[in-house]
Amino acid sequence: MKVLAAMSGGVDSAVAAARAVDAGHDVTGVHLALSKNPQSFRSGARGCCSKEDSADARRAADVLGIPFYIWDLSDRFADDVVDDFVAEYAAGRTPNPCLRCNEKIKFAAVLERGIALGFDAVCTGHYARLVRSDTGVEMYRAVDPDKDQSYVLGVLNSHQLSRSFFPLGGSLKSQVRAEAERRGLSVADKPDSHDICFIPDGDTAGFLSRRLGSIPGDIVDTNGDTVGAHSGFHQFTVGQRRGLRLGVPADDGKPRYVLDISPVTNTVTVGPQEALQVRTIEAGVPTWTGAAVVGAWRGLVQVRAHGKPMPAEVTAAADQLEVTLDAAAVGIAAGQAVVLYDDDRVVGSATITGTRP
Amino acid sequence: MSRIYLDHAATTPMVPAAIEAMARELARVGNASSQHGSGRAARRVVEESREAIAACVGARPAELIFTSGGTESDNLAVKGSYWSARKADPGRSRIVASTIEHHAVLDSVGWLAESQGAVVQLLEVNQQGLVDLDDLAQIDGSDVATVSVMWANNEVGAVQPVPAIAAWAASVGARSHSDAVQAVGRLPVDFGASGLDLLTFTAHKLGGPYGVGALLARREVSLTSVAHGGGQERDVRSGTFDVAAIAGFAAAVQHATGRLAAESERLRVLRRRLLDGVRAVVPDALPNGPDDDAHTLPGVANVTLPGCDADAMLMLLDAAGIDSSAGSACSAGVAQPSHVLVAMGRSAAAARSTLRFSLGHTSTAADVEALLAALPEAVRRARLAGSLAG
Predict the structure, then answer these.
(1) B329 touches chain A (CB under 8 A)
(2) If you average pLDDT over residues B194-204, what whole number do you get?
(3) Which of A61, A324, A347, B382 can pair with A29 through a Cys bridge, CB separation 3.0 to 4.6 Å?
(4) What is the Cα B159 distance to its own chain's centre?
């Protein structure tokens, strides 16, 4: 097959491309330039898309002996990922930009462009397992539990999965590093990237303040009484405890958490941990890795990138899911994805729109 | 698979005579600035090369300063002449250049404006990529330090009215420079007859090695050093002579200028066939650059292929074994639309759909036919990919 290997300049995508070559595919490397103003060098383990990263990707492609190009997707990334990220926060929700990038960029813009240019599939260094059979492709959690990225890939549909390769899903990260070393890839000891690539200094609140401004507002308790002030509601996430700087102590003296964010009234509501407890999750715009779930379904759900899978009952109707957790959980924020798993198999994903106790 | 190389404007394959001359010198020792026998032998090669090159471009040997290539020559010409002119007459703070200069000139000029207080005036070009001498005549030249306009543009091949520009500069007491990197070896270039004060050219664009070039500078033109050191070249350019590269440079210049008339006619025929063939395959293709041979480099064919993203075309042709250019370089992959095409009035979208094919001494009719054979499928796929954008 003619395979397009997305190469970030990191160790994972380099080894993934190498394995695609070993599997006998005709592989072409592409580095996706996602930032409008690429920095010359990486700062620590954060960030991506620096000139140094594209040079690392090029060197890895050289070592593998495959053609290599840089694709400028900075416009699409700005529109579909960065602006979406900002708009979601502005609406009081908590988005996952990596998921959005997979959904809109890597397995949409890149895949479709690749197909148009004559490629059959896209290969990435994501940690997830694909199992192909006559009936289609199924996606499973990666063998390495610390690196498993099936949550941010849950949004892919069967068409996208049928055109994807994740050669690292069956390996441990330590094995991937050792393999990179053995293959003579200079990125073998490059630190893992973390956090949000377009916020290289890690200061998400500062980034949002620059984009959205800082309009001060009230922090209120569940009675509606003002207990503090904030300098921009987008600096908060549901479930957050730290950094609230509340002037009025709680009656019971217990710590308080962010319960709700209301952009319309520019208020942040806080309250006791019990009030964060969620049993029912409403989610919209479901996507399915295979056949759509209709009606009642029982399995595991995960609501955060590195969250624990929780047993739940799901009712699927049209474009809406209602998820009832067996046991209440805390810190579930609108905007995040709820991903459905049948044991280790990814069933589908939907965006959380609301929660109930 | 042997590749079809259609990127001679980026760099040319070395001619065998240059490889031989270079290999011969690489096997010998001797710093050309040393006094001993080995040094003198090396110096002799440098000076014989200097004489040979100067003779090919209408210059006196003493006017030739060896440099590391076009970028260094452009920097030395623009910054060095500006600093000297301004030192002699603080009122001369203006630099005139064209909007389609190579970045080695454009960015030098920009730096002088940003950090050295220079006033910059850029000459516009018309839709064919040619500067208008009337625009120059409008300028009050009394405060002009240096005028720099390229001999021939690297992207669209437009040949500029350089002797007239040099004459204007002389009439107002300004220094004139031309980046002739694309011209020497491809067009007749006579430094003495041109009236220029300064002229840049480089070896690797005419069949010589990388890393060596020259700045021709009239002896009465004062230049200030850009990089300081031993002052090996006229006390203004420092660095140990690269004897082997200089010998290769000389062999390449002699080879290229010796057969220039016949070769440029051969390339013009190939270029015409290429452009006609492209239009036959892609009826809405638009050639960029002057429409007459007299104002065009013989080997540069620049075409806009509407709806075809140049990056996609380059990749598809590459996969078919054909080396072409998307026109402008990029940094970390975020390509900027060509400043040359934008200056010629093309839209950013058109600039992003533009490819440059450049022919040179190894190009054959078979190369052109191979391109034309690969083009329809590449255009079909690039348009398919382009239709997804948005």
Answers:
(1) no
(2) 98
(3) A61
(4) 11
pLDDT tens digits for range B338-370: 999 999 999 999 999 999 999 999 999 999 999
The tens digit of pLDDT for each residue in B220-267 reads 999 999 999 999 999 999 999 999 999 999 999 999 999 999 999 999
pLDDT at B331: 46
Tell me the domains of chain A and their CATH numbers.
2-189 (3.40.50.620), 214-273 (2.30.30.280), 277-356 (2.40.30.10)
Which residues have a Cβ under 8 Å from the Cβ of B108 and sit 6 or more positions away? B74, B75, B78, B79
**Does domain B4-12+259-386 correspond to CATH entry 3.90.1150.10?**
yes
- Residue B315 belongs to what H/E stretch? helix B310-319
How far apart (Å, rounded) are the C-alpha atoms in residues B61 and B119?
33
Domain ranges across chain B: 4-12+259-386, 16-258
Q: How many CB pairs under 8 A join A and B?
A: 55
Determine contact, residues B179/B162, Cβ cutoff 8 Å.
no
Q: Which two tokens stand for residue B236?
A: 């203004």
Q: Determine contact: A44 vs chain B, CB below 8 A.
A: no
Catalytic residue among A48, A49, A101, A123: A101
Region B166-190 average pLDDT = 98
In the predicted model, is pLDDT for residue A239 greater than 50? yes
**Interatomic CA distance for residues A295 and A321, integer angstroms:** 9
Q: For A101-135, how does the pLDDT look when each residue is reduced to its tens digit (9 = 90+)?
A: 999 999 999 999 999 999 999 999 999 999 999 88
Binary contact (A51, B334; C-beta < 8 A): no
**Is the Cβ of B331 closer than 8 Å to some Cβ of chain A?**
yes
Give the ipTM of the model, two decimals please: 0.87
The torsion region of residue A47 among left (phi > 0), alpha (psi -120 to 50) and beta comes to left
> Regarding the domain delimited by B16-258, which CATH topology (the fold level of the hierarchy) does it fall under?
Aspartate Aminotransferase; domain 2 (3.40.640)
3-class secondary-structure state, position B312: helix
Q: Is A197 a catalytic residue?
A: yes
Contacts (Cβ under 8 Å, ≥6 apart) of B189: B57, B58, B151, B180, B183, B199, B201
pLDDT band at B333; cut points 50, 70, 90: low
